[in-house]
Description:
The chain has helices at 15-26, 33-46, 54-60, 91-100, 104-120, 130-134, 148-161, 168-184, 206-214; strands at 4-8, 29-32, 66-71, 74-79, 82-83, 123-127, 140-145, 197-200. The chain starts with a strand and ends in a 5-residue tail after the last helix. The chain has a single domain (4-214), classed as Rossmann fold (3-Layer(aba) Sandwich). The strands form 2 sheets. A 5-stranded parallel β-sheet has the order 2-6-1-7-8, with helices on both faces. The chain has a 3-stranded antiparallel β-sheet with strand order 3-4-5. By secondary structure, the chain is of the alpha/beta class. Keywords: ATP-binding, Cytoplasm, Kinase, Nucleotide-binding, Transferase. It is found in: Cytoplasm.
Amino acid sequence: MGYSIAIDGPAGAGKSTIARLVAREKGYIYVDTGAMYRGLAVHFLKQGIDPGDADGIAAACEDADVSIGYEEGSQQIYLNGENITSLLRTEEVGNMASRSSSVPRVREKLLSLQRDLARRENVVMDGRDIGTCVLPDADVKVYLTASSATRARRRYDELREKGVPCDYSQIERDIIERDERDMNRAVSPLRQAADAVLIDSSDMTIREVADAILALCRP
Length: 219
């Protein structure tokens, strides 16, 4: 049985960045569950499915095979054998992932893969419902958050650095709307597990957040 670190929290809180750093320093496998949902979202968008079409999304799951691979220690997402990692970080894919993740069939499809990884390996896994649903017995649970303004600024800076045109106000509106959907969906809503440690990263550096999580882990 592997040692598991679960990091949950809203979009833009820095979960992926922190989880990667913690995994690297512990020598564990990093599992970005959000990227897995985004992988399915890419499939739904390619099929031209409306984000509100729950039946269409459920049916499309049958034709999608999402898998994880690692290249030079970096997680890669494959959709039907094609590496789609470079397609995952657009706002369109993020919004589709947020909407489609509330469809039970989507969660069922990915849950077994996530749990199997945690049984076989030492993992750092981040997402929306890792500590509450995917790995309820995780050895360490963290709920990582930040203000919507801070999260929007981080995303804005990230996109600008990549040369992607964007609007800060629209990004913050999207984040607030995504929080609302994630926290109020019927299936596995975003919430802090009762035994999770709350960390607000609004005024913390990446190093400070990573050190706070590492201090919770076994030596």
